[in-house]
Amino acid sequence: MSVVNEKLPVWDLEAIYKTPEDWEKEFEKIRPVTEKFAAFKGKLGESAETLKKAVESSLELNRLTEKLYIYAHLTLDQATGVDSSRARMGKLQSLLAELAPQEAYFVPELLRIPEEKMDEFLKVPCLAFCRRFLEEILSERTHVLSEAEEKLLGSYSQVIGLSSTLFDTLNDTDLEFGYIRDGEGQRVKLTHGSYRALMENPDRGTRERTCKKLYKAYRQFRNTFASALDGTVRRHAVKAKVRNYPNALCAALNGDRVPESVYRSLIEAVHSKLPAFYNYMELRKQVMKLDKLDMYDMLNPLLPGCSQNYSFEEAAQLVKDAVKPMGEEYGKYLELAFKERWIDAPERQGKRSGAFSSGCYDTFPYVLMTYKGTLNDVFTLAHELGHSMHSYYSKITQPYIYSDYKIFVAEVASTTNEILLFEHLLSQSSDPRFRAYLYAHIADEIRGTIYRQTMFAEFELFMHETVEQGTPLTADLLNKKYYELNKLYYGPAVDPLKDIELEWARIPHFHYNFYVYKYATGMSAALKLARNLRSGKPELREAYLGFLKAGCSKDVLDIMKDAGVDLSTPEPVTAALDYFSEAVECLEKELRLCGEI
Ligand SMILES: [Zn+2]
After folding, report:
1. Are residues 191 and 138 in the same domain?
2. 239 Cα–ligand 1 center, Å
3. Among all residues, which ones are annotated catalytic?
4. How far is the CA of 385 from the centre of ligand 1 (A)?
5. Residue 184, class by beta-carbon neighbours within 10 Å (0-12 exposed, 13-18 middle, 19+ buried)?
6. Are both 34 and 142 inside the same structural domain?
7. Can you give the pTM of this predicted structure?
8. What is the mean pLDDT of residues 57-81?
9. Tens-digit pLDDT profile for residues 564-597
10. 518 C-alpha to center of ligand 1: Å?
11. 2 pLDDT exceeds 50?
12. What residues make up the domain containing 206?
């Protein structure tokens, strides 16, 4: 069935607010609800009962603003050009910015309640519903400074983030890359948005020109990019020091209560499995019939022209069949995504590009994507519905206060769905070319998510340790280290062009704070969980559903452990890379069968 003639699903946003006027009515509540919450300022330490009311009031405010925000953001993303939607979002954002100072008292004031008094409060039953929530804030107590020091730091808050702002402005606004002539002679403007598509272009010359042109611009501003990064990393290091953490890594991981060893052992585990990655690079090289691969030979599909076309209905059925190992209840809830119209799939003028799952406690967990019928779109559908089902289970199981899962586990459910889809499609096909295509797909996913993100994580650690030892980050230093890491990770089949040394300059995540390793641990966990689910053992399935239901009611490592993955050991990562190794062997076998090598 052709996708062109098919009616694709569109969101039911009336389920949030029947009309835009209803949104307006609810919007009017923000100010009084904020004032109600602000009235507790200076009173948190009065009694457990008062603290309970303040927490409830804060939750009421969050819940209200989240729902208003989701409606504003989804109506806007559906068609970004509509003035009324832009105005709605603008209005909400400016009110929230105006009211933010009124809410800012809560955490600092809570932290100033004397420890003994707080311990007594926490024993009072009326605070049981939010004990974990409060304890999580209070665990920061040893890292909080005196009131005067906090005030002084607070007055610098807008200055402190300037290095990241500088990066964003230079990278997103000022930097111009010019034009590229692609393999078909078309002149294409090179932008951050078009870069990825150009790097997927089957024409090698186009990819090479794109890569060189892009890095030419970065080379010109390399010292400014290095200064910005130096500023960001220095900020993390200083923050760790003044707040009594042993180092920046420990400070960054503390929020998730993840020990440093998890981070360091991820890097070690990936190093021990680099030979499997070298094998994959060797295979790519053979299929592409090259003497050496270059860095611009990574994103082009290994087997072009191999993808089939799927109607949306077929895609939905594939996803439903693929997640059967999760059991009947999961299947029943998944049906709601289609029946209640959680998904917006058609291509539309002004629709936000890409794909996401987004919602809150009082809305459906909506999915945005542009469905064109490729196999990648089917994977995207499985992925985003994985997020949505995670949100749905957490929402129906947890009270509002613990319903929102943390970033650390955010990609686990979505990736598990993708892996189950991959395995399902494999089991359905005996065509070696299609099977090779699938194996290459999963190998590329693991390459991008585990190997590449761990390389980023290692680079991030190098930058922080360098600054902590008192050495400033210069462009030369960063180039040298980045190039070495590329050589190490990609191995003998790849001869990286010199320009790749500048890639660090364009990665926004390096201005986050030890963030990317979560992609690698998340996918490793997903591979293990998918295997558990496929075993068909009911207790393993229940453990998986327990993870979906957990929200943020426990520490992330405990949630994963209860689900069947112990991320405090390197085992899940090594097992994931063994899976990768097997996938590469299977890929080789299928490639031989279809005569590609
Ligand atoms: Zn995702």
Report:
1. no
2. 30
3. 384
4. 9
5. exposed
6. yes
7. 0.94
8. 97
9. 999 999 999 999 999 999 999 999 999 999 999 9
10. 12
11. no
12. 162-298+435-511
- On whether the CB atoms of residues 311 and 6 are closer than 8 A, the answer is yes
Whether 554 is in a domain gets the answer no
CA distances from 164 to 222, 431, 467, 482, 511 (A): 15, 49, 17, 20, 6
| Domain termination residue (choose one: 93, 123, 155) | 155
- Same domain for 17 and 151, yes or no, is yes
Q: What is the CA radius of gyration of the chain?
A: 25
For the chain, the domain total comes to: 2
If asked whether residues 201 and 147 sit together in one domain, one would say: no
Could you tell me the sign of the dihedral formed by the alpha carbons of 542, 545, 547, 550, in that order? Answer: negative
- The CA distance from 113 to 40, in Å, is 14
Neighbours of ion ligand 1 (CB under 5 A): 414
Confidence at 1, pLDDT banded by 50, 70, 90: very low
pLDDT at residue 115 tops 90: yes
For residue 79, how far is its CA from the centre of ligand 1 (angstroms)? 22
Distance 419 CA to ligand 1 centre (A): 13
The pair of structure tokens assigned to 529 is 């969980």
Ligand 1 mean position to 145 CA, how many Å? 37
Query: Could you report the per-residue pLDDT of 199-215, keeping only the tens digit for each?
Result: 999 999 999 999 999 99
Cβ neighbourhood burial of 539 (10 Å; 0-12, 13-18, 19+): exposed
CATH number of the domain within which 104 lies: 1.20.140.70
Tokens of 285: 């090289």
How many angstroms separate the alpha carbon of residue 280 from the centre of ligand 1?
A: 25
pLDDT tens sequence across 272-324 = 999 999 999 999 999 999 999 999 999 998 887 666 899 999 999 999 999 99
C-alpha to C-alpha distance for 392 and 397, rounded to whole angstroms: 9
Instruction: Give the mean model confidence (pLDDT) for residues 334-349.
Output: 97
Query: Which of these, 426, 449, 453, lies nearest to 526 by C-alpha position?
Result: 449
Sorted by sequence, the CB contacts under 8 Å of residue 151 that are 6+ apart come out as none
Residue 597 lies in a domain: no
Residue 278's identity, in one-letter code, is Y
Query: How many angstroms separate the most distant Cα atoms in the chain?
Result: 77
**Residue linked to tokens 């100072």:** 101
How far apart are alpha carbons 380 and 383 in whole angstroms?
5
Mean pLDDT of the 326-346 span: 98
Residue 141 covered by a domain: yes
Q: How far is the CA of 593 from the centre of ligand 1 (A)?
A: 34
* Shared domain check, 293 and 187: yes
Candidates 306, 528, 533; CA nearest to 429 is 306
Same structural domain for residues 144 and 206? no
Mind listing the pLDDT tens digit for each residue in 24-37? 999 999 999 999 99
The predicted model gives 355-371 an average pLDDT of: 97
Q: Identify the CATH number of the domain in which residue 241 sits.
A: 1.10.1370.20
Does any domain span residue 132? yes
| Spacing, Cα 126 to ligand 1 middle (Å) | 37
202 and 103, same structural domain?
A: no
- Tell me the C-alpha distance between 525 and 114, whole Å: 40
Residue 193, pLDDT > 90, answer no
